[in-house]
Predict the structure.
Amino acid sequence: MVLTSISLLSGSQEIKKGQLTFKAGLVIPSELTYFRQVLQGFQQETGIEVTALVGEAKTSEEIRRAFLDDLKTKKSDPDVMFLDIAWISELADDGLLEELDNYQIDTTVFFPKLVKLADTYNGKLIALPGHMDGGLLYYRQDLLQKYGYQYPPKTWDELLAMSLRVQAGERATNPDFWGFVWQGSRYEGLVCNALEYFVSAGGGFVDEKGDSIINKEENVIALQFMVDLIHQSRISPPTTYQIDNEEQVWRRFQEGNALFERNWPFAWGKHNAADSPVKGKVGIAPLPSFPNHDAAATLGGWHFAISKYSDRKEDAVKLLNYLTSYNVQKNMVQTIGWNSVRRDIYSDPQVVASAPHLISLRSVFDNAVPRPMVPYYPDFSLVLQKYIHAALSKAMLPADALQKAHEELKVVKQKFEKS
Ligand code: GLC
């Protein structure tokens, strides 16, 4: 069989009718290279030609919008989609995802919690997990040692104290040096960061019934702490709330301009790449917590689903099985540094040797806190983004911002329930 090479088209280009297509966003730049290589492997193994439609969308929101544009106009492409855990329920509730129960897919290889939480909607299997994210603390091991610290911080106050000291010391030779960098601009990443502070203070977003608890005192304290990192102790730069997302933050840390960084697992690979100025100097740990509370990592990650309007459903299932197969998931951990969703990968001797941090941090991922898995989550998130950001930019006081958010979140839920 003659195989044509993988074509990479931008969203607007012509696709041959009946072609099997795969679409992902570009949350991290290496995603493109990674998927190009994986799809080539699928093509070689099965003889099925596949085209990658790699859109230009970079943030989770932009990527969601691009998928909604395809789906709402009932396009037969893309067949296979790579979706953020945050909005799978919305697409499933709108009936836009193919139900997978009839395709004999073995889901027992995955972490059951993930499949139950994210890939099952109203009792039907509608997606398969692709990779699992959890917020982590990256730190400069060499700098902690230089200033006499043996361990990374366990509490937010320790992180603050270490940052103040190291920042003051390092500024003597590097005026661009900051204690702690994290994602605080107005987008989904901010919501993920906020959840970690809130839960690690004993708060959270919703109760068991899904009702907002956002105005809880614990959340107000946690949000005040976030504000103070930027405006009072000034260990986090003003760019935190102005522009910082995952990419800005790993770049700043990688350039040697930060002691601590909050990011997802992919950053480990970046920091330890051959050309990284901080290669070999980086440690990784669970995020800190407030006293007497457990630390929390937001559960993130991306999942594979098939469009309801796909005209290649059988082949799309083959691609899903390939993308979640042992060898592909193993290669994923080793190349792009994404955390596997398969349980068996964690006892693979080569993975244990090449990514020991993912093994030792297993409990972070096992206990990661999901955002509300409800179809109206995108609207819910927009309210949180608006008000948490208003506090970070000092347009509102934390207590007022969270009270307003609480009122609007109630309306979002009620609207959905009435529709
Ligand atoms: C990562 C996570 C995703 C989250 C996003 C926020 O891509 O995997 O779940 O929504 O970051 O920026």
